[in-house]
Design goal:
Oligomer: single chain
Largest sheet: 10 strands, antiparallel
Number of strands: 10
Shape: elongated
Number of helices: 23
Number of domains: 3
Helix content: 40-55%
Structural class: alpha+beta
Length: about 550
Amino acid sequence: MLVTQSVSPMNNLPNMLSVLEEESNVDIDDVFPPHVDTTNIVIHPESPTSKKQALKTFNEVNVLLQAGRKREVKLIIRDNAWPLNNGIRAQLWPALCNQHTHGKNMLDGFYWDMVNQVFGTTEEECYHCMASLVAAKEKMFITQTKLLYEVTWKTVEQITRKHVKSAAVHLARHCSGSRAERIYMDWIWWILQLLPFQHLVRVMDCFLHEGIKVFYRVAMAIVLLFYKHSSPQNSEWMNEISKNGIDAALSKFCRQIPVTPAKFLRTAFGVRALTSVYISRVFLRTEMALKSRSVLTGSRSLARSRSTDNLPTSQSQVNIQMMSHTLTIREKECEDTYKDRGAHSPGPRALSMGVYPIQSIHSQILDMPDLFTLWSWLPVRITMYQPILLYTTEEHGCSLTTFYVRVEQHEPTLLMIKTCNNEVFGAYCSTRWCERNLKDDKGQRQAYFGTGETFLFSLYPERAKYPWVGMDSSHNDPRVHHSAELFMAADAKMITIGGGEGQAIWMDENIRFGKTDRCSTFNNPPLCASGDFEIRVLEVYGFAGA
């Protein structure tokens, strides 16, 4: 989302912040620099929600910010419509941005000392505010890539179709062809470029505290209000649609929106059942779908420009199949030898043509020697594909819902776990996690899924690979009992890998606690000494093009 590229009055906000004074209502011409045209800026009177309440001061809001009482701050900001000539925003907006700062202060260092001396604090504070929003971890404010911009407008489209369905249908009815979908591409400019300035300032009050979900709600409010004012056949806005088309009519409606800023925000925040969790789920699902599409349908020239790092050539695949067959036989013989000695792990396979993709991995769990060992245990055809980090608790949080959204469409996947006791183990999962939702002929959901290519591994304190016990015999051999074919299982509350007389790896819905036992499927010992473990880091990798 290219917020900073708007040609709206947003470009003048740093100048506005530098001249506003705390809590004082002054003449509008004294608030803005001389080059700002203030003729169309309307000053609304003070308007807290309750007539008996006075507008909150910055000091009152800041006390709540410092105490971490974010919900109270959210309600105050939504309810207090400070006039444009009130000086509170000179301090409020930087404070709202700074609350999202993580790590080292952006203003530390010689460069900003020099900037402060030469230019004063305006550029410095503006940069710091933007950097805080970009780096925020708990909420999203600004997206920075073309892909994520596409994700945002598709997210707006999806939540609009679900939560203000009649308005979305009305919009689609007056669009021609594919424009019904792509009209949402301009959603951010409805807000930042077209809304009246007094409406935009109130939106920004909320946005700087609550994040991009405010923009989503505001976009839905625009569509909903446009529907209410243009659905009557003899209405002014229906005539505008008939005369100039839906795009021009919607743009004009945003400029002349016929409600006050207060009613506009009430409409936006009045959309029910639209939670942050739901928005995040839609966003992540859309992001993963678009990433998968780019992998599957990306241009040939683009793929070739990156050499052969992503996908092997057809001749390479022939060579891989031949080598895979040979190495499988050798590994089988090696495993038999090791099992005769009472061990489970084959020696690492000689490094071959399938090693080079791991050079791009920057794992928080494994160093390069461990990665080499792990890669030597993977099916050879898989080692030729570029690994992609799909999910990590360090970046994406500890949520099974997020795990499924980011991982479930990929096959195969590699799970790596580091416990709080520094044990390292995991599993190669041969099947997509979305198969947890498949049903059998009787309409019942399958408890377990997966194939015999799935295996477990341990890298610290011991190195060992635990393949499926069925590798020792024919798959139809009656000695391979059903309890030894329980590879993967999952639902909304847990993830399980390996079953039968125990679970090799089990993780809870918060991806925080787990347990490990011996299981019949892999004939493994518990992968950590205590059997129970607390997860420090979980990383899940997929393979581009596999």
